[in-house]
Specification:
alpha+beta, 3 strands, 6 helices, single chain, Arc Repressor Mutant, subunit A, three-stranded antiparallel beta sheet
C-alpha cells in the first residue's frame, strides 16, 4: 500500500509492525513475516540513518522503536494509522497483532 512512497515493501512492514507493537528486533520480524533476516537488518539500518527509528541494546539484542525526536513523527504515525485501517483484517491479525498469551507464566518467573 505505501511501498511506493517508502520505496521498499520491507520498510512498510517494519513501520506497520512498530505502529502496532512499539518495538521489535530483526529476527522477530524475520520470523513473523517468514522473510530473510538480512533484508530487515538493512531496512532498519536505513530507517535509523534517516532518524525515523532508534535502536538500543536489550541484553545482546538490538531493539528498534520509533524515534521520539523525529520531527515529523506525529504526521508519520497518522499516515501509518490511516493506511493500516485499510489492510484486510486477516492480514492484520496474522502479521501485526501479537497473540494473547494462552497459558500463565511459571510461578516465580521474572517478567
Amino acid at each position: 500500500m505505501l511501498e511506493g512512497l517508502f520505496g521498499n515493501p520491507t520498510i512498510e512492514k517494519i513501520l506497520f509492525y512498530l505502529l502496532r507493537n512499539e518495538k521489535t528486533y530483526p529476527s522477530e520480524l524475520s520470523t513473523v513475516f517468514d522473510m530473510s533476516l538480512f533484508g530487515f537488518q538493512t531496512a532498519l539500518e536505513r530507517l535509523e540513518k534517516a532518524g525515523i527509528v532508534v535502536s538500543y541494546m536489550e541484553g545482546r539484542t538490538r531493539v528498534y522503536q520509533f524515534n521520539p525526536r523525529f520531527a515529523m513523527q506525529e504526521e508519520l504515525i497518522i499516515l501509518l494509522q490511516k493506511a493500516y485501517s485499510f489492510l484486510p483484517e486477516e492480514f492484520r491479525q496474522k502479521y501485526y497483532e501479537r497473540p494473547v498469551r494462552k497459558r500463565p507464566r511459571r510461578k516465580g518467573k521474572p517478567l
